[in-house]
Amino acid sequence: MITYTGESFFFPHSGRHGVILLHAYTGNTNDVRMLGRQLNWQGYTVFAPLLHGHGGDPQKVLESNGPDDWWDDTRMAIFRLRDAGVDQIAIFGLSLGGLLATRALENDPQLLGGGVFASPITTWGQSNVPEYFPKIAAKYYRQQKINPLITKEKVAKLTERLPQQLAQIQTMAHQICDQLDQIHQTFFIAQGGADEMIDPASGLQLKTKLQENGVAVDYHYYPTATHLLTVNTAHRQLFADVEKYLQNLFEVSSNDNK
């Protein structure tokens, strides 16, 4: 049964080619559902896990174990595809999901490739998440028709707890950045020039660091696009760029296995 409430989704297809898609911080799998559908139509098995704490009350995000839980989610996603006989895998992530996808590529050389969409691997400490998280939380509580005074109290408590988790994410980002020399796969980077959440220079900085380590980088810059590249004005071009990257990636893999 397919759900459309931001839960994990698994779109099967015949063959050994698969793609894992990881959503953004405070987001859910709706961030990557359109891309998942498009890639499934192109012949890939696609899995997008809902990261712990996400998909509902923002309080649950802060109650999770943060990066530790989300890394477990990422590893289990890889295991799920392999357990289903899909062993030629690419992994991508949006924003926070991009950190996790990059960590996976650093730690699992059997992954064929993947990359990031608007992910602040080199600039997490400069993100606007502290400003946007309370707004996202307040919007959620308004949608749930919670009393405005209670909403204000809830948001205030979340704002107090937020810095601790953001510090954990920043620590993870630093560790990932320090281990970029462990990546040897061709790496995909997408970045919007009008990104309101992270420094628009993040993608180019990551590209430079990877190329210094000899990594082949497939870099795409969308000058007028905002942060959520998978659903905003750039999404059609992004989907086409990802499809082309995957075609080349799996074609090279098929030739290597002959």
Number of domains: 1
CATH topology: Rossmann fold
Strand order of the largest sheet: 1-3-2-4-5-6-7
Instruction: Give the overall average pLDDT.
Output: 93
Q: How would you sum up the major sheet? A: 7 strands, mixed
Gist?
Helix 1 links the parallel strand 2 and strand 3. This protein is an alpha/beta fold and 258 residues long. The chain is 48% helix and 14% strand.
What do these coordinates show?
The protein has a single domain (9-252), classed as Rossmann fold (3-Layer(aba) Sandwich). Strand 4 (88-94), helix 4 (96-107) and strand 5 form a beta-alpha-beta unit. Helix content is 48%, strand content 14%. The longest helix is centred in the middle third of the chain and has 31 residues, at 148-178. The chain has helices at residues 33-41, 58-63, 67-83, 96-107, 129-143, 148-178, 202-212, 235-256, and strands at 9-11, 17-22, 45-48, 88-94, 113-117, 187-192, 217-222. The mean pLDDT is 93. It has a seven-stranded mixed sheet, sandwiched between helices. The protein is globular, with a radius of gyration of 18 Å. By secondary structure, it is α/β, with parallel strands linked by helices. It has eight helices and seven strands, in the order ββαβααβαβααβαβα.
Outline the secondary-structure elements.
Elements (H helix, E strand, L loop, with lengths): L8 E3 L5 E6 L10 H9 L3 E4 L9 H6 L3 H17 L4 E7 L1 H12 L5 E5 L11 H15 L4 H31 L8 E6 L9 H11 L4 E6 L12 H22 L2
Parallel strand pairs: 2-3, 2-4, 4-5, 5-6, 6-7
Antiparallel strand pairs: 1-3
